[in-house]
């Protein structure tokens, strides 16, 4: 589904992503691991259109999407999650979900003023979708809570919820497990699996929690120093010499 071909990204003299090639297969939950500074987040940001690469190509379903804006990629069904921005911590959980589609379609007040009937119908559809998403994430009881009052793990669920508002096909998650307690981690991984199996979402997940990766991801890709070191099942990756060297060597 996503094909990364020979991507290079430099920051000044530093080569953060160094001729990196990999694939995220349709319908998979692909894991991306590697020591700090391996270039994982930079690669994600390049795939999602936030960073322009210095070389190489990104293909989405065979179509060259290199350098497209995040907005264009979102329309094509590719999204990455983000921490809830500061402004949104003072809005409720429900509101955080409801503003996603309007934000993404670049809709403005002028539209609502020109076609009030349509705006009303749109709002109802968005509200219905938001309630579905809350139900799926088991966050319904928190819908009127301010996003800023959620726990770390609940915020992560809401971040995923925001991507679900517009029915994406492929979701990039950068360290969804960071700072999340065990109980919510279980729920998070359940939600990811359900969306994958029942809704056909493809995921690519950067994560340091190897238990979470082992539980969710196949295949797993290991990066180090901007390059792909190894790819395979978690069991294969665990036994790979180059991977062990990257984590524990030198
Ligand atoms: P990872 O997510 O695997 O920990 P990153 O992609 O965040 O790695 O970083 C890869 C390398 O690029 C690191 O050496 C990091 O310091 C550097 N880097 C990342 N973003 C920037 C930036 N915006 N400006 C300069 N250097 C950066
Ligand atoms: Mg990172």
Automatic annotation (TrEMBL):
Keyword Chaperone carried by entry: no
Any matching Pfam family: ABC_tran
Signal peptide: none
CC annotations in GO: plasma membrane
Keywords for this protein: ATP-binding, Nucleotide-binding, Transport
Gene3D superfamilies in the cross-refs: P-loop containing nucleotide triphosphate hydrolases (3.40.50.300)
Alphabetized GO MF terms: ATP binding; ATP hydrolysis activity
Ranges of residues in domain ABC transporter: 2-250
InterPro entries, per the entry: AAA+_ATPase, ABC_AA/LPS_Transport, ABC_transporter-like_ATP-bd, ABC_transporter-like_CS, BCA_ABC_TP_C, P-loop_NTPase
Protein name stated in the entry: ABC transporter ATP-binding protein
């Amino acid at each position: 589904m996503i094909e990364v071909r020979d991507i290079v990204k430099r920051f000044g003299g530093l080569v953060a992503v160094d001729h990196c090639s990999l694939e995220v297969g349709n319908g998979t939950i692909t894991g991306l691991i590697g020591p700090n500074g391996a270039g994982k987040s930079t690669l994600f940001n390049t795939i999602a259109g936030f960073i322009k690469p210095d070389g190489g190509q990104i293909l989405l379903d065979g179509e060259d999407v290199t350098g497209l804006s995040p907005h264009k990629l979102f329309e094509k069904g590719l999204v990455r999650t983000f921490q809830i921005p500061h402004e949104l911590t003072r809005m409720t959980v429900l509101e955080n979900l409801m503003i996603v589609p309007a934000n993404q379609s670049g809709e403005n007040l002028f539209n609502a003023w020109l076609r009030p009937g349509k705006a009303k119908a749109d709002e109802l559809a968005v509200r219905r979708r938001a309630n579905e998403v809350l139900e799926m994430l088991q966050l319904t009881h928190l819908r009127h809570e301010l996003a800023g009052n959620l726990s770390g793990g609940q915020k992560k669920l809401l971040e995923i919820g925001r991507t679900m508002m517009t029915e994406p096909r492929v979701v990039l998650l950068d360290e969804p497990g960071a700072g999340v307690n065990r109980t919510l981690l279980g729920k998070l991984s359940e939600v990811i699996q359900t969306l994958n199996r029942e809704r056909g979402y493809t995921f690519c997940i950067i994560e340091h929690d190897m238990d979470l990766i082992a539980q969710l991801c196949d295949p797993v890709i290991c990066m180090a120093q901007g390059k792909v070191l190894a790819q395979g099942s978690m069991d294969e990756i665990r036994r790979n010499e180059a991977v062990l060297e990257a984590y524990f060597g030198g």
